[in-house]
Write a structure and sequence with these properties.
The protein has helices at about 35-45, 50-55, 60-70, 80-100, 105-115, 115-130, 135, 145-150, 155-165, 165-175, 180-190, 195-210, 225-230, 235-250, 250-260, 275-280, 285-290, 295-305, 310-320, 325-345, 355-360. The radius of gyration is 24 Å and the shape is globular. It is built from 21 helices and no strands. Helices cover about 65% and strands about 0% of the residues.
């Protein structure tokens, strides 16, 4: 999906206050609206289901800014809504022309269709939207296509690209690579540091040539052991083990550093009881039963100790009814619960650190 041309600009984005937002008065003209306000109007007009799908493709800052505007917004005048929708249609149409034949082709078509002034105004918006990083656009490329592309590239290039993808997509790609490829790419990802603009530019050229992405500039990359640990947390257990073993052969210290940053299902025994209870409230009982099929007795005991007797009875019955299940299904359930836990930690609802008690101060 193309990046939202109505998303807030850097100048328009400041951290949202945590206090309740107050209603905002809207200007009479769409030209006076901020990018975040236009996006809010667009998402409201599209409805909850479509809006939710679109928000999944935006970064946290964009989601926060647009959500604040949605919360502030009351009834927008129908003519203002219509102007925003027409603007989005025009910009989206211009972007499609760029995809078909490039910037100059799009400019010529638009000049023919709506005159030079309006065409130039639209092209300025489109060219601004095109300044989005290639790595952000890669999130929309099919996993198989991206995997095949990375197989043909140098491991360092593959590592840099994986560092920019979300962990779930990176894990899917890693699981499709051969063992030697996994080892090489993950080692380079773990040892990556800040990357020069020149190298990033070279990689953007590779992506542009191979995948046809329209991209802009980027200056650094968030790689390192934290990124590898995050990816391995969502990688199938067999692949996780083989990658860690291979990295250990190269560097005991590096592998240990990655392992220490990983949080696996059995580590739920190490977190505070109040955090475990908060997590269990968010987990589906059927999924929990499946995840516990291959759990240690210690973890089963810890979880049951933090559930009511009635829930424990239902859980034990559910586990018994499951019978024999594939290991892959059990691992998938465990990964799903861990992802819920990690999302709750990002929202500062729980703490997952194995040394959480030690890091607390009174």
């Amino acid at each position: 999906m193309p990046d939202n041309p109505l998303a807030p600009t850097e100048e328009e984005t400041t951290p949202a206050e945590s206090s309740p937002v107050s209603p905002s008065s809207l200007p009479d003209s769409a030209e006076e609206l901020s990018g975040a306000q236009k996006s809010a109007i667009l998402l409201i007009a599209l409805g909850i289901e479509t809006a939710s799908e679109i928000l999944q493709h935006l970064n946290d800052r964009e989601v926060e800014e647009i959500s604040v505007e949605i919360a502030r917004m009351r009834n927008a005048p129908s003519d203002l809504v219509e102007d925003v929708l027409l603007e989005y249609r025009d910009v989206a149409r211009a972007q499609s022309y760029v995809a078909q034949g490039g910037v100059e082709y799009a400019r010529e078509v638009l000049q023919e269709a709506m005159g030079p002034d309006r065409a130039e105004e639209l092209m300025m918006r489109v060219e601004a939207a095109m300044e989005v990083s290639a790595f952000h656009l890669l999130q929309t490329v099919e996993t198989d296509q991206l995997t095949n592309f990375l197989r043909r590239e140098h491991p360092q290039t593959a590592a840099l690209i994986l560092a920019h993808l979300n962990s779930r997509k990176s894990a899917e790609i890693i699981s499709k690579l051969g063992e030697e490829e996994q080892e090489e790419v993950m080692y380079r990802l773990a040892t990556i540091g800040n990357t020069s603009p020149e190298m990033i530019s070279d990689i953007e050229d590779v992506i542009r040539n191979q995948l046809g992405s329209v991209i802009g500039a980027e200056t650094s990359v968030a790689g390192g052991v934290d990124k590898v640990a995050e990816i391995l947390n969502t990688t199938p257990r067999s692949a996780e083990k083989s990658i860690l073993d291979a990295l250990r052969d190269r560097s005991e210290e590096l592998a240990a550093s990655i392992k220490n940053r990983m949080f696996v299902f059995e580590d739920l025994t190490e977190i505070r009881e109040e955090d475990l209870q908060a997590l269990l409230m968010e987990v589906d009982q059927n999924e929990l039963a499946l995840a516990l099929k291959a759990a240690s007795d210690e973890l089963k005991h810890t979880i049951k100790r933090n559930l009511s007797e009635r829930v424990v009875e239902g859980l034990e019955e559910e586990i018994e009814l499951l019978g024999r299940v594939p290991v892959s299904e059990v691992e998938e359930a465990q990964h799903s619960i861990l992802q819920t836990a990690q999302e709750m930690e990002k929202q500062e609802k729980i703490v997952l650190s194995r040394s959480a008690e030690e890091s607390m101060v009174g």
